[in-house]
């Protein structure tokens, strides 16, 4: 057997087409969804992400504001910038690109963003709302993963989901979102003993550890759905995932590629959250 590929690139494209129509309808009502991004320093990966986000905003009709500041900015100055954006009526989403310089507290930055504008879904209030199944901005990568699974009409209810990785950005929240969809969820991490026992029992396996080819075909149950969240650069400079694609493809029923898998969906769900924020602000839930 050979796995069916879940292309995040294709799904993102179709979702962005829908968003384009939605922003056009909102503009007819005088509402322009606005996203503000603050980028600190010259990290090449961060610059690349921010550029991709700006381009995606332009394509879908979202107003994009970018504030690129140097690493010499003080924590107080950065927090003041965020507080000003919290008050700005034309901005519906605020994103501070991580990582931040050592002298700036990531925790303080995230907690200063108004939860009603936290389109990254990292604020403790949004995390708490997500945990308890309330209306919330969902973290973009986990949200994108769930959308990818649903796009293939894969039944999640009652399935055994194994999440390899327990980061606050991907591992923990994706498990919670799938628990909210009535899956049975197991988390594996660096201290898990006999990890293969768990990965081989997974109906849906999500791998987010940041280690090239950490999971191979032998670690996968026949017919499992495998979502590869990893983005690693190998010795040749090529992007690779946390899953060995060639061997996994022979065992899985569905598999995401790297690149072109989860990555494009992360930005797409950020756009979705920004549009949602604009609608919630104007009480247009069913718009």
What does it look like?
The protein is of the alpha/beta class and 287 residues long. The protein folds into two domains: 30-114, Rossmann fold (3-Layer(aba) Sandwich), CATH 3.40.50; 140-263, NAD(P)-binding Rossmann-like Domain (Rossmann fold). It has ten helices and eleven strands. It has a six-stranded parallel sheet with strand order 1-11-8-7-5-6. A three-stranded parallel sheet has the order 3-2-4, sandwiched between helices. Strand 9 and strand 10 form a beta hairpin. The mean pLDDT is 96. Residues 139-280 form the Tetrahydrofolate dehydrogenase/cyclohydrolase NAD(P)-binding domain. This is Bifunctional protein FolD. InterPro entries: Aminoacid_DH-like_N_sf, NAD(P)-bd_dom_sf, THF_DH/CycHdrlase, THF_DH/CycHdrlase_cat_dom, THF_DH/CycHdrlase_CS, THF_DH/CycHdrlase_NAD-bd_dom. Keywords: Amino-acid biosynthesis, Histidine biosynthesis, Hydrolase, Methionine biosynthesis, Multifunctional enzyme, NADP, One-carbon metabolism, Oxidoreductase, Purine biosynthesis.
Brief summary of the model shown:
By secondary structure, the chain is of the alpha/beta class.
Name the average pLDDT: 96
Computed over alpha carbons, the radius of gyration is 19 Å
Summing up helix and strand content along with how strands pair, one would put the structural category as alpha/beta
CATH class of the largest domain: Alpha Beta
Low-confidence stretches: none
Sequence of secondary-structure elements: EHEHEHEHHHEHEHEEEEHEH
CATH topology of the largest domain: Rossmann fold
């Amino acid at each position: 057997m050979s796995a069916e590929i879940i292309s995040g690139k294709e799904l993102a494209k179709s979702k962005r087409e829908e968003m384009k129509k939605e922003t056009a309808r909102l503009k007819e009502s005088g509402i322009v969804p606005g996203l503000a991004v603050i980028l600190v320093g010259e990290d090449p990966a961060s610059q690349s992400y921010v550029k991709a986000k700006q381009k995606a905003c332009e394509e879908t009709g979202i107003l994009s504001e970018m504030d690129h500041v140097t690493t010499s900015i003080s924590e107080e100055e950065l927090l003041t910038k965020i507080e000003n954006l919290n008050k700005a009526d034309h901005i519906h989403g605020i994103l501070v690109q991580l990582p931040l310089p050592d002298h700036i507290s990531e925790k303080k930055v995230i907690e200063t963003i108004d939860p009603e504008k936290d389109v990254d879904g990292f604020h403790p209030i949004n995390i708490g709302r997500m945990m308890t199944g309330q209306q919330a901005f969902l973290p973009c990568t986990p949200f994108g993963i769930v959308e990818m699974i649903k796009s293939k009409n894969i039944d999640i209810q009652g399935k055994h989901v194994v999440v390899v990785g327990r980061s606050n950005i991907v591992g923990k929240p994706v498990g919670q979102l799938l628990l909210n969809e009535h899956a049975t969820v197991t988390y594996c991490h660096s201290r898990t003993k006999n990890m293969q026992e768990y990965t081989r029992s997974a109906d849906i396996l999500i791998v987010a550890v940041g280690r090239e080819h950490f999971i191979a075909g032998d670690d996968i149950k026949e017919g499992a759905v495998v979502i590869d969240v990893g983005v690693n650069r190998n010795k040749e400079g090529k992007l690779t995932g946390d899953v060995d694609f060639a061997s996994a493809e022979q065992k899985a029923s569905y598999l995401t590629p790297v690149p072109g898998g989860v990555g494009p969906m992360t930005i797409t769900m950020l756009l979705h959250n920004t549009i949602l924020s604009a609608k919630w602000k104007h009480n247009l839930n069913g718009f």
